[in-house]
Amino acid sequence: MEPWQLTAAAAAVKLREGRLTAEALTRSCLERIAEREAVVKAWSFLDPVLAISSAREVDKSSVMGALHGLPIGVKDMIDTADMPTTYNSPIYQGLRQGRDAACVGVARGEGAVILGKTDTVEFAAAGRRALTRNPHDTARSPGGSSSGSAAAVADGMVPLAFGTQTGGSTIRPASFCGVYAMKPTHGVVNTEGAKRYSHTLDTIGWYGREPADLRLVAEAFRLFDLDRPLEKELQALRIGLCRGPNWHLAAAESREALMLAGQRLEAAGAVVEELALPQAFEGITEAQRVVLLGEGRGAFLQEYVAAHARLHADFRDRVENFAGISGAQLAGAYNLAAECRKLFDALFPRFDAVLTPAAVGEAPLGRQDTGNPVFNSMWTLLHVPCIAIPCTRGPHGMPVGVQIVGPRFGDAALLDVAALVASVIDAA
Amino acid sequence: MEPWQLTAAAAAVKLREGRLTAEALTRSCLERIAEREAVVKAWSFLDPVLAISSAREVDKSSVMGALHGLPIGVKDMIDTADMPTTYNSPIYQGLRQGRDAACVGVARGEGAVILGKTDTVEFAAAGRRALTRNPHDTARSPGGSSSGSAAAVADGMVPLAFGTQTGGSTIRPASFCGVYAMKPTHGVVNTEGAKRYSHTLDTIGWYGREPADLRLVAEAFRLFDLDRPLEKELQALRIGLCRGPNWHLAAAESREALMLAGQRLEAAGAVVEELALPQAFEGITEAQRVVLLGEGRGAFLQEYVAAHARLHADFRDRVENFAGISGAQLAGAYNLAAECRKLFDALFPRFDAVLTPAAVGEAPLGRQDTGNPVFNSMWTLLHVPCIAIPCTRGPHGMPVGVQIVGPRFGDAALLDVAALVASVIDAA
Q1: Distances in whole angstroms, Cα of residue B208 to Cα of each of A60, B63, B69, B214, B343
Q2: Which residues contact A308 (CB under 8 A, 6 or more apart)?
Q3: Which of A103, A301, A384 to mutate to test the interface with B (most CBs of B within 10 A)?
C-alpha cells in the first residue's frame, strides 16, 4: 500500500509512531497528484518543492499536534502566507497575503503540511466555476464550491482538505465525490482569512476518507471542549429520520439513500424515528436565500467599487441588490432563523442525531452545474454541525451520501455518532 | 482657517468644487499631526510621502465617490495593502497584507486618502493598550479600543477615521474625546480584513466631527439602500429616553448628560418619552459577556497554537476558556440576543430613535483603564445602529456624550435623526 492510500487517521498513527515521515507521505501524495491531476484538475496552486520543504520542517520537530505530518489541501478561498490566493477571481490573480487564514494557521501550528490550494467556484459563490472534475466520472461535477478539495480527497491526492460552506459547498461535494465531510457549528472555527460571502452563513469545513479523519481536524480546533462525549453504543442511538421541507426536490437516489441509511441503522439495532420539523421550518430555505443575497450585497462592495470591470456580473447584481432584499426582510429572516435554531436544539437529547439527505441526487453532468444546495442551505442557516457519510450509488454509478446533523455546539457528540454509524451506513 | 480644521463634510464640498485639493488637505493634516503627535500619540504608522502620493493620485482622477479627497485614519486592527498592520500585537510586527480590508478598499474606491494607521488596544480586545492620550487632557485615556482613531479626529489630525466595536470600542471613545461616531447595523459593513474578536459582535465604525461627516462614510457603504429616509422635522420626532439595565453604573455626569439631552430635545419641540425595556433585557449585558468570551475562545486559537509565547496572557486565558463558557451557555446567549433584537425593533416606529448613555462618565485617568463598555455592549449585541453625539462636560471639564440608537437596518433614518438633533444636544 502506498502512503497516499492511507486515510488521515491511519497515517497519523504511523507518523506518531515514527513509521512514516511527513516527507514520505507528502512525496507520495505528490506522486498521486502527478499521475491524476491532468484529469481531475483539483489544484489551483501546487509547489512540490515548497510542500516537501514544509514536510521536512514538520519532520524536524517533535509531535506538534493533532495533525502532525498530515498533508492538507486548502480551498483557494482561504489565505495562505506562503502561497498565492486567488478566490478564483480575475481581480486577485497573484495575490500574496502576509499571514495565514486562521484555520490554516491552526492547522500549521498543529503540525499539518499545507500541500497546496484547491480550485473553487469564484468567491465560493457564483461566477466562474472550478476546472475540477469528479474523479468517479470526469464528465461530471465534483460539486461546488469546494470542488477541488472534495475531488482531491476522493482521488487520494491528499488525505485532508479544507472547504467552506455558505449554502451547501462542503457537504454536497462530499456526497457527489463519495467522501466524508464535516461542517462544524457556525462560528467555532474562525473564518478569518477566508473570503467573505455571508457572515451569518460562511463556515469552514473539511474532508476526509473516514470519520476518524474528521475527528483529527476537530481536535485541532478544540471542538471537544464545547460539548460532552456521547458515551453510547450503536444500539442505544436514537436517530431522527428527517425528510425536511425540500423532500419533493430529492431525486430517487437521494430518497433511496436516506431510506437505506435508516434501514441499515435499524437493522444494526439503533432506534430510527421519523422526524417532522415544526411548521416554522417551512420558511427556512427562503430565509437562507434572503440572508445569502442580503449579505452578499455588502460582501462584494469592495470589488464592485475598486475593480468593477473584473467583477463577474453575478456579484455586481448582488451589490446592486437585484433581488430587492430590504432591511426588514433581512431582519425577518434573522428572526426566523433564530426561532428555528432554538426549536431544532430542543429536539436533543430526544435524538442523538438527525439523518437527512446530503444532496438532491448524483453529481450533475458538466462543469457549469455544481448541483443544488437545497438540502444543505437550511442546516447552514441553522448553524448546526453536519457530517456527510457516503451511503450508496445512483443510477449512473455515482456516489450518493446522506448527512447526520446535531444541535449547535454538539460537534463532539456528533463525531461520536459518526464513528458509530458510518460503517453501517457506508456499506459500499 | 487651515484645511485640517474643516470637518469632512465641509472639506468634501470644497474638494468637489475644486476649491481644495486632496494634496493640500492631506498636507495640512500632516502638519497638524507633526505639531501634535508627540503629545497625542494617535498613530502607529504614518508615512507622509505615501499619504501625499495617494492624495495626488486622487487629485488626478475625476470625483471618485462619497469620500473623494478626504483623508481617513485606519485603526491598526484593519488591514491595508500599502501599510503595515500590527493589531498592536508583538506577533504581527511588520505584517504586510496583500490586500486592503474590505472597508479600506471601499473607502479607497470612493476616493478616500488612507492617511495612516491609528493605535489600538491589542487585537482591539485586551492585553497591550494604545499609547494614545486624550487630546482634551493628556493625563486621561481617549478610551479604547479605537483609541488613536477617536483622538486623531478629536484633535484635528484627520477628518475621518475607522474604528471597530465589539463591546464599546467605537462609541465610548467618541464620548471621551468629544466627537461624533457611528456604529452601523452589524453586518452591513464587511468586517473582512479586520482582525476577528467575536464574529457576532465585531462591527466597523467611524468617527467624524459633525453628523454630516458620518453620513459621507455611510454613503460610501451604500447604507441608504436598506432603509427609507426619515422625512420628519425635529418637532415631529419621538425619542425614547432609555436609562437601560445598567443605569446604576452611570456616573453623575453621564446621568446628567442623558437628562440634559432629553430636556434640550423637549425644549426644541421633540416628544421625549421614558422608555423602559422589557424584562428580557435584564440578561442582555451578561449575554454579551458570554458571547464575547465564548467566541474569543476560537478567535485567538491561531496565535495560541502558532505563536504561544508572544500571545498576551489575556488571550491565552480566552482560548483556554478560563471563564468556563459552555456551548449551551453560548446558545442560550444567542437565543436571548435574538429575542431582544426582535423586541427592540418592535419599538419602532413608535419611536424614531432611542436616546441612551454613551459611556459611564468622563474619560478615566491613565493609559491602562480605557473605560467601561457597559453602556455599549448590549447595543453591540443587539446589532442596532448607534450614533454618538457630544453633549456636555463632566466635573473635570472632559467631554461627555450620549448616543442615539435605531432598529436594525435603520441606519439611514438614524443619520437623519442625528442631523436634526445633534445641534440641539451638542450645545457645548
Answers
A1: 53, 21, 15, 6, 31
A2: A316
A3: A301
In SS3 terms, A153-166 reads as HHCCCCCEEEEEEC
β-strands B238-241, B271-274: how paired?
parallel
Say if residue B227's pLDDT is above 80. Answer: no
pLDDT digits (tens, 9 = 90+) for B250-274: 999 999 999 999 999 999 999 999 9
Interface residue B297 vs chain A (CB under 8 A):
yes
Has residue A10 got a pLDDT over 70?
Answer: yes
Residue with the three cell numbers 507622509: B48
pLDDT-derived band at A428 (thresholds 50, 70, 90) equals low
Residue B246 has what pLDDT?
Answer: 97
Question: Measured between alpha carbons, how far is B363 from B243 in angstroms, rounded to an integer?
Answer: 20
Residues of A in contact with B331 (CB under 8 A): 341, 345, 407-409
- Determine phi and psi for B273, rounding to 5 degrees: -130, 135
Coil, strand or helix at B160: strand
Which part of chain A is CATH 3.90.1300.10? 3-225, 234-282+333-425
* Whether B427 contacts chain A with CB within 8 A: no
Count the neighbouring beta carbons within 10 Å of the beta carbon of residue B50: 16
Q: What is the CATH number of domain A234-282+333-425?
A: 3.90.1300.10
Show the cell assigned to A195: 473570503
Q: Given CA atoms B268, B270, B276, B280 in this order, what sign does their dihedral have?
A: negative
B43-46 and A271-274 beta bridge pairing: unpaired
Q: Is the Cβ of A80 closer than 8 Å to some Cβ of chain B?
A: no
Q: pLDDT at residue B29 above 70? A: yes
Q: Which residues of A are catalytic?
A: 75, 145, 169
Q: Which residues from chain B sit within 8 angstroms of residue A125, using beta carbons?
A: none
- Is A233 in a helix, a strand, or coil? coil
Residues A13-53: tens digit of each pLDDT: 999 999 999 999 999 999 999 999 999 999 999 999 999 99
Q: Which amino acid is at A264?
A: R
How, if at all, do strands A113-118 and A71-75 pair? parallel
The whole-angstrom separation of Cα B33 and Cα B403 is: 28
B83-109: burial string, b at 16+ Cβ within 10 Å, e else: bbbbbbbebbeebebbbbbbbbbbbbb
Burial class (CB in 10 A: 0-12, 13-18, 19+), B39: exposed
Most B CBs within 10 Å: which of A100, A203, A295, A305, as the mutation test of the B interface?
A305
**Rounded to whole angstroms, how far apart are CA atoms A379 and A186?**
10
Residue A103, SS3 per DSSP? helix
A3-225 belongs to CATH 3.90.1300.10: yes
Q: Which helix (H) or strand (E) holds A274?
A: strand A271-274
Of A221, A299, A326, the CB nearest to B301: A221
CA distance A115 to A100: 14
CB A125 within 8 A of CB A145: yes
Instruction: Specify the pLDDT at position A279.
Output: 96
Q: How far apart (Å, rounded) are the C-alpha atoms in residues B178 and B209?
A: 9
State residue B428's pLDDT score: 61
- ipTM comes to 0.97
Non-local (6+) Cβ contacts of B191 within 8 A are A196, A199, B102, B103, B164, B202, B203, B204
User: What 8-state DSSP symbol labels residue A374?
Assistant: G
- Can you name the residues that pair with B274 across neighbouring β-strands? B241
